[in-house]
């Protein structure tokens, strides 16, 4: 029997950017743990198809996490249609790779809006309800690039570094109202976002060499960390970033 501290049966969880990849795997993990899960993305059909493949009570909420009014309406709709939100996973994100000298203004704003502003917007709207109720768990999906950076990825790393500090700020502001906010920092995980890197044999071999675990991460590798941070076992854990990276950020 599992320990009651890890029991999250019956909680309602929203995972942003869960039409595929890491978000979908995290949503599946939360559903398997007994949560009512709300999938989010911008494509309703894709979300509905993803929802059909998950067990338990699964809902969809179509909204763009970069658009303030849509986010506010989306969270209100989830609260009214599905129920009080207990768990929010801010996962939606994107990556654009280019040397900084070639990075355009509009690409800079797209990366910032999708990876950082989104967590502020969705976190703020969800926290309005969570703080009023006196409990809630928020997990912001950061990155090993919250800590370290490689050439050609500076804007992405800047958003993930800032997301780390936003996590700590949310912890400071909402902790007194019973809301714990933590980050989870994946290492290199095989998804659509990293497909070009996986296909690049030289880069792929570098990842395997640089990772003490000796392999790329799988989306399922991240589930345990999120379940822990969403559970009562983490009631006194807030403002932390849990790196799930096969050890990569710890070694030179
Ligand atoms: P994918 O590109 O596979 O998935 C991204 C998801 O985000 C999709 O479901 C997409 O849905 C959604 N999304 C993107 N923009 C928006 C938006 N404006 N509004 C709503 N949803 C949006 O990425 P991953 O699964 O690989 O990454 C997920 C998170 O994990 C990201 O934050 C990423 O930075 C982080 N991460 C990933 C790593 C990796 O190695 N893969 C490593 C470290 C961190 P749709 O397009 O249908 O709207």
TrEMBL record:
The keyword Oxidoreductase applies. The keyword Oxidoreductase applies. CDD domains: Ga5DH-like_SDR_c (cd05347). SMART domains: PKS_KR. GO terms for molecular function: oxidoreductase activity. SUPFAM superfamilies: NAD(P)-binding Rossmann-fold domains. Keywords: Oxidoreductase. Residues 11-177 form the Ketoreductase domain. Pfam families: adh_short_C2 (PF13561). Belongs to the short-chain dehydrogenases/reductases (SDR) family. This is SDR family oxidoreductase. It comes from Streptomyces roseirectus. The lineage of its organism: Bacteria, Bacillati, Actinomycetota, Actinomycetes, Kitasatosporales.
